[in-house]
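Moderator note: this is an archived Q&A kept for reference. The question asked for a predicted structure of one protein chain; the sequence and the answer are reproduced below.
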Amino acid sequence: MMTSYGVNALVSDSGVIKYRIVTEQWDVNTAVNPPRWLFEKGILLEQFDQKYHVESYIQCDTAYYYTSLRKWHLRGRVRIITKDGLRYLSEELIWDEGKHELSANCYSQLITPERQLEGNYFRSDERMSTYYISNTKGSFERGDIEGKDDKPHADGTTPPPAPMPRTPMQPRPKSTR
């Protein structure tokens, strides 16, 4: 086991500084199965562009990296901002580097420049370009959802939205006789 305190490490790729890791405490434990890195006091991972401006970042209260599995488990106030301006907010995120996949089984928010989505299950590719959110709610523009009655009438007015289908648990409307 190795413990490092007050870590502010720069990581280079082909001689160019690309990443920064900031954490109060970094534990490396190779005596357990699977071996892991522990960041129990939080972590900030930043990615830089060629002019050393922060391009994207990942931040959370606690993180575990399972080195042999190549899998991150982020917990507590998980915040991600990508190069494309996407923001992800949740209390948990699992990042599988081998499958190039992100997932969470808890309430998550994904905020894009065009829309905001929320749900209780999240799955995405690493770039967050293709994502799936279940039990969702969110905001969309009118053109995002295609419907057969969305076309304007000949006089230029739009039809009212179709009534929602009645579920078996809803009481029937009272008649007004």
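Archived answer notes: Confidence is low (pLDDT under 50) at residues 162-173.
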